């Protein structure tokens, strides 16, 4: 049941990305081009997503337990650290340069070389980040 619901949710998300045009990098890049060919449609897509999310969270948190899990798995950290800020900056730069958000990239992976190159760059970034984190852990002195 979990797998089927994950598939259905992913299919719905992918259809939403395609219907809204967010799989087209030119449409996304035009949103960032405020001084040129600005296209505000991304703001409306994000606003709609925020509205649905806000309503969904209000409904879900009224439940004692989730439908398909033993309990809620919520993050306990609330601080901003260098990894979060750096990762957010790299994400934003990559999105601004390529026009592909990872969520919007998946539904268009089979539509040409550009999405595949972007996916490869994202994968390389993930591997690089993991390598840098592992390298940092090895260089830290042992605590007494």
Automatic annotation (TrEMBL):
<keyword id="KW-1133">Transmembrane helix</keyword>
<feature type="transmembrane region" description="Helical">
    <location>
        <begin position="82"/>
        <end position="109"/>
    </location>
</feature>
<keyword id="KW-0812">Transmembrane</keyword>
<protein>
    <submittedName>
        <fullName>Putative transporter component</fullName>
    </submittedName>
</protein>
<dbReference type="InterPro" id="IPR046513">
    <property type="entry name" value="DUF6691"/>
</dbReference>
<dbReference type="Pfam" id="PF20398">
    <property type="entry name" value="DUF6691"/>
</dbReference>
<feature type="transmembrane region" description="Helical">
    <location>
        <begin position="41"/>
        <end position="61"/>
    </location>
</feature>
<feature type="transmembrane region" description="Helical">
    <location>
        <begin position="115"/>
        <end position="133"/>
    </location>
</feature>
<keyword id="KW-0472">Membrane</keyword>
């Amino acid at each position: 049941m979990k797998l089927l619901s994950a598939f259905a949710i992913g299919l719905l998300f992918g259809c939403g990305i395609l219907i809204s045009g967010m799989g087209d990098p030119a449409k996304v890049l035009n949103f960032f081009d405020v001084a040129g060919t600005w296209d505000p449609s991304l703001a409306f897509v994000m606003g709609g997503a925020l509205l649905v999310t806000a309503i969904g969270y209000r409904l879900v948190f009224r439940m004692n337990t989730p439908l398909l899990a033993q309990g809620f798995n919520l993050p306990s950290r609330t601080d901003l650290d260098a990894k979060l800020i750096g990762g957010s900056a790299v994400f934003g730069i990559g999105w601004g340069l390529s026009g592909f958000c990872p969520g919007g990239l998946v539904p268009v992976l089979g539509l040409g070389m550009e999405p595949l190159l972007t996916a490869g760059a994202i994968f390389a970034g993930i591997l690089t980040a993991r390598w840098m984190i592992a390298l940092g852990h090895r260089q830290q002195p042992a605590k007494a």
